[in-house]
Amino acid sequence: MERVNKILKHPIFLREQQRIKAFEKNRIYCGHQSEHLLDVARIGWIMILEEKQNIEKSVFYAAALLHDIGRAMQYETGEPHQLAGILLAGQVLEDCGYSKQEREAILEAIRMHRTDPINEKNLAGILYRADKKSRACYCCESEPLCNWSNQKKNLIIQY
Predict the structure, then answer these.
(1) What's the confidence (pLDDT) of residue 6?
(2) Alpha helix ranges (H) inside the chain
(3) I need a labelling partner for 157 at 20 to 30 A (CA). Which of 98, 114, 135, 138 fits?
(4) Which of 28-56 are b and which e, b meaning 16 or more Cβ less than 10 Å from the residue's Cβ?
(5) Which domains are present in the chain?
(6) Between residues 21 and 146, which one has the greater pLDDT?
């Protein structure tokens, strides 16, 4: 997990987390800050273990920590965050020692995390599912106002 901890201290990651925090200061719905990122990482890791998938822990954690890094840019420009974050995430991954093959897989998972590969058992599919399952709708005060359908909301704990 040494490389994962490097991500947490990387200047680009820290800067973008601060920018996201500022943009979401008055947001009443789910946020995209460190708590969410770690929830995605831990839920995804549980899925990987339960489904007996061959995905390295530091690779999944990197994808989870970086999947929303483009959020501030989306708030500024309207560019979808899964695309806006690719360059930022790529630089962080390279600086933190991820191989070219690992970077390509992680960046593809980030790019795909807004599509619906729900049944896929690969890095992208697990990131997608963990991202959705990380939302604590069952105890959210804004749940009645949320535009997610009741079918999509997490009204019970699964992970």
Answers:
(1) 98
(2) 2-9, 11-23, 34-50, 57-66, 71-77, 81-95, 100-112, 123-133
(3) 114
(4) eebbbeeebbebbbbbbbebbeeeeeebe
(5) 2-145 (1.10.3210.10)
(6) 21
CA geometry: angle at 44 spanning 120 and 122, to 5°? 25
* The residue type at 56: E
Q: What is the pLDDT of residues 116-141, one digit of tens each?
A: 666 678 999 999 999 988 887 777 78
Q: What is the pLDDT of residue 153?
A: 81
Nearest to 12 by CA among 56, 73, 100: 73
Q: What Cα–Cα distance (Å) separates residue 114 from each residue in 6, 38, 97, 144?
A: 26, 18, 26, 23
Alpha-carbon span 123 to 2, nearest angstrom: 20
